[in-house]
Amino acid sequence: MTDEMRVHERILDALHFAGAFDRFAVLLAVLALGISRRLRDLAGRVTTRPALVAKMGHDQLRFVMAHEMGHYVRHHMWKMVEFVLAVLSVALWLAQRLVDGVVRRWGRALGFEVAHDPAAVPLFLLVIGVLTFAMSPLFNVVSRHFEHEADNFSLELTHLNDAGARAFVKFAEDSKVLPDPSPFIRFWHYSPPTLAERIAFCAAYKP
Predict the structure, then answer these.
(1) 22 and 108 share a domain?
(2) What is the chain's mean pLDDT, rounded?
(3) Rounded to whole angstroms, how far apart are CA atoms 204 and 77?
(4) 159: domain range?
(5) Total structural domains within the chain
(6) Which of 80, 95, 167, 207 has the fewest CB atoms within 10 Å, counting from its CB?
């Protein structure tokens, strides 16, 4: 049995152990592991960074695969959809209230007197843009939580702490992002945890 076949079996075993062994998970496994003869090529499809995957060892690939499985098992995609719809509903309500207020106060000077005037569309889009920008840290907090949960899931499933930390070191080298930015940049810009946080978590966590 080749090394790639062994990793293939380990990932399928991990799927079964994770409780993800349903039709969708089997389809993912077939697409990810069956079509491609080369595990590194397939993992490149999953992570969308073939050049980075080529630098990873088998244990690091297992950690990354388990992380992605964690997103599926924890239903992160559907939770994020629900969260986005809820926030969007609030944002649209706030935008409507703000536009109505602007129209009442300055509408005549702006060239329209009712909010449903087509001339008010740029104002509405501007308000939505400002609200979306203001709410971006909230989306980042939720995204960081999901990424941390997936990291936790991967470590619980694989116990590959060292491989996980080394995988994040390679992410840092490949992406050229700041591994430990200022708290403000982290709060406003980073949707995953910082690489320094993820490396420290892998090093300290005891699955």
Answers:
(1) no
(2) 78
(3) 27
(4) 76-204
(5) 2
(6) 207
